[in-house]
Amino acid sequence: MTRVTRTASSTTDRRRASLSRTLAGVLAALTLTAATAVPSAAAPVTAPAVQPTAISASTPGGLAANPTGGSGGKFQDIRSLSYSNGAVSSQYHLYADHLKGSKPHGIIIHLHGDGGFEYNQPQWSTIPAYEKLAVKHNLMLVVPRTPDQATKTWWRKDTSGKYAADLLRNLGKKYNLDKNRVYWTGYSGGADTVARQVVNSHSAGWTGGAAVMVGGGGIYGQSKPLRPISSALKKNFEMHWVAGADDTPAAGGASGSYDAVGAAKLGRAFYKGQGLKTQLLIKPGMDHWEIAPSGPTKLGVILARR
């Protein structure tokens, strides 16, 4: 099924207007003391003034860690690191200066919406709130840019979703990551890619954690995943959709004819039918742009009970 895109001008104007009204409240709720921009390619930055909790050898919730055993990577905050999986190439921002030691760490991977706002201007997006959560819960945060720079979207090409999954695998070779604490987050087109490509085709790359999809995340015309989802992942991985009630053409949604509410309902129904733990939250009075900061809020709730 063809997914409707947004025009660049309306997307940028509406996104900036709505995020400026709502992001401050979300960051305050997360007690973020300073929204730090991504540093230059060579310069590290100071981590937010939050003390990480002690790291244990077990995943929160009693699930034993599943370490990748990687080593050699440097814990740092740095932007625009290059990575190629041999088929496509792109870059990613890394937030890891707050991590220490050799014990396995979990990871948040955020896939941006169409146009790449969160990658290009992270300081004005939800990224500082995700960084706050990464610091608090001893998680690495990675924000890749789609390799499809012709359209600046994640969802149009299957090679883009594979790139994200391969990036996780590559990071697991450089760092000792905990495959039971992998948290995929995505907004709009990034949310669609988490549902339609990453979990649908590449779920063998991790064994637990959660996905948070905001303003999207649909599955269309399928009765089963493109590749099997393991019984371990069904037990240890949960999927959450968050959509604004006004983010649908029937309610005059701000994203043209794209129905994010309908997409979220379809995605949730599909994965619930596969035996995964799922939840759908539709927030009244919110449109496609206003719902964006709900991603870090939802992930914070998930992490707090693990």
Strand-helix topology:
Blueprint (H helix, E strand, L loop, with lengths): L7 H22 L47 E8 L4 E7 L9 E7 L5 H4 L6 H10 L2 E6 L13 H17 L2 E11 L1 H14 L6 E6 L16 H6 E8 L15 H14 L3 E7 L10 H11 L2
Parallel strand pairs: 3-4, 3-5, 5-6, 6-7, 7-8
Antiparallel strand pairs: 1-2, 2-4
Helix pairs in contact: 3-8, 4-5
Care to describe what's here?
The protein is α/β, with parallel strands linked by helices and 306 residues long. The protein has helices spanning 8-29, 117-120, 127-136, 158-174, 189-202, 231-236, 260-273, 294-304; strands at 77-84, 89-95, 105-111, 139-144, 177-187, 209-214, 237-244, 277-283. It has one domain (22-40, 57-304): Rossmann fold (3-Layer(aba) Sandwich), CATH 3.40.50.1820. The chain is 32% helix and 20% strand. The chain has an 8-stranded mixed sheet with strand order 1-2-4-3-5-6-7-8, sandwiched between helices. α3 (127-136) runs parallel beside α8 (294-304) and α4 packs across α5 (189-202). 52% of the residues are buried.
- The low-pLDDT segments are 1-58
Give the CA-based shape: globular
Q: Could you name the CATH class? A: Alpha Beta
- Terminal-residue CA separation: 36 Å
Structural class: alpha/beta
Q: What count of helical segments does DSSP give?
A: 8
Helix content: 25-40%
> Would you give the CATH topology?
Rossmann fold
The H-and-E topology, N to C, reads as HEEEHHEHEHEHEHEH
Number of domains: 1
What is the strand arrangement across the widest sheet? 1-2-4-3-5-6-7-8
